[in-house]
Amino acid sequence: MALYFLGVDGGQSSTTALIGDESGQVLGAGRGGPCNHVSGPEARTRFIAAIGGAVREALSQAGLGEGVKFEGACFGFSGGAGDKEALLGEMFTIEHRLVTHDAMIALAGAHGGGPGLIVIAGTGSIAFGRNAEGKVARVGGWGYVYGDEGGGFDITRQALRAALRMEEGWGPPTVLKEKLLAAGGASSANSLMHAFYTPAWPRPRIAALSRLVDEAAAAGDAIAVDILNGAAQQLAGIAVACRRLALGVEMEAAVAPIGGVFQSARLKEEFTRRVEAVPGMRVRPPLHKPAAGALLEAYRAARILPPELKGVPEQEKSY
Q1: 36: nearest Cα among 75, 65, 62
Q2: Contact by Cβ (8 Å): 238, 103
Q3: Which end of the chain is less enclosed by CB atoms within 10 A, N or C?
Q4: What one-character DSSP code corresponds to residue 33?
């Protein structure tokens, strides 16, 4: 009798489901809307629609009926497990179920289910790792008030600080001020700062302006270069610390950088230089996205050694 496995990446912007068989062959894929919160009737309805729709699409593509029993299933959520586990138990028939956080499935996807480290730098930042014995460790991810150094929000914050210092006459000139004011439709750095405190500027929108720092650095702006180098230093630092906690300094460690911040070639190059200056550490691109990682963890939940996945959709292979 065939065994089926389900991996779901439930994020703040979308949901992706993958179904595989016992050999690691991906049979179907599906997508749905955001599903990271379930508190309240409307959120619960959206959660069921997003997860259910993504899984139904994957089942249809796999040629399976909706009543299929999954030998193993893993659900990774950006908001953590919370109160989602009981609801998932009502929605699907699963022999072995794991509900976890998004960093776990990102790590599993990046390293094909094996040991290693990831550094995620999007709006915020975090390092996460696991050794061959299954020991895990995380470093960073404290949120925008107390941490998230090197993330997109932090980079934009540093840029705005530089613009404010220039505007008040106690900081060096930088093209960052002009770029930020144009992007924010503001007349001054001070007015832009106040706008950033309003609901019109949620953190992801502010973080997206970090691309302006990369543009300024490419044009030779010294302040922008310093900001990117500082971000790379912080991100490399949490990678090295996570290696020590999860793997031990004597273990070889591959680090996969993940997230929009690493689209900056300058920052990624400096991050790589700093990480690979540490003996035994190297940087390599992630093998798969988190949905594939969730599928790999579904095998592990069923106490099956995660196989090498075959037939992973192209859009789930790389960032």
Answers
A1: 75
A2: no
A3: N
A4: -
Distance of CA 33 to the CA centre of its chain: 17
What's the CA gap between 271 and 235, in Å, rounded? 7
131 has which bridge partners? none
**pTM of this prediction?**
0.86
At 114, phi and psi to the nearest 5? -95, 180
Q: For the chain, which ranges sit under pLDDT 70?
A: 36-41, 79-83, 249-251, 317-319
Estimate to the nearest angstrom the gap between the alpha carbon of 218 and the chain centroid.
26
Render pLDDT for 163-209 as a digit per residue (tens, 0 to 9).
999 999 999 999 999 999 999 999 999 999 999 999 999 988 999 99
Give the bridge partners for 253, in sequence order. Answer: 281
Q: Give the orientation angle of helix 152-168 with respect to helix 176-184, to 10 degrees.
A: 110
Longest dimension (CA), the chain: 74
